[in-house]
Specification:
Strand content: under 5%
Largest sheet: none
Radius of gyration: 23 Å
Shape: globular
Structural class: mainly alpha
Order of helices and strands: HHH
Distance between the termini: 62 Å
Length: 87
């Protein structure tokens, strides 16, 4: 039976496990999404429902979610109105 001062059983519990730096490590850094900040936008309820449906469909197909689709829509609006599209 271990003594009260025996900490050998706790050694691995506090050990941090870091992801390996294998060949996929750099790929995940390249595919990281841009930093986003919250912005409240008021939509008509029917637009909101359709956006949620679209996001649900696209999540399975392309992996895009509501923020991704919103950014895509804004990029199209920027082009239409001659505003420089941020990269």
């Amino acid at each position: 039976m271990p003594s009260k001062n025996d900490v050998s059983s706790f050694k691995n519990k506090n050990k941090k496990i870091l992801p390996s730096k294998g060949k996929g490590a750099n790929e995940s850094a390249k595919k990281s999404k841009p930093i986003r900040s919250p912005k409240t936008i008021r939509f008509r309820p029917d637009y909101q429902r359709e956006l949620e449906k679209l996001a649900l469909n696209e999540k399975g197909k392309s992996g895009k979610n509501v923020p991704d689709l919103t950014e895509e829509a804004l990029a199209l609006l920027f082009v239409k109105y001659g505003v420089k599209v941020p990269e």
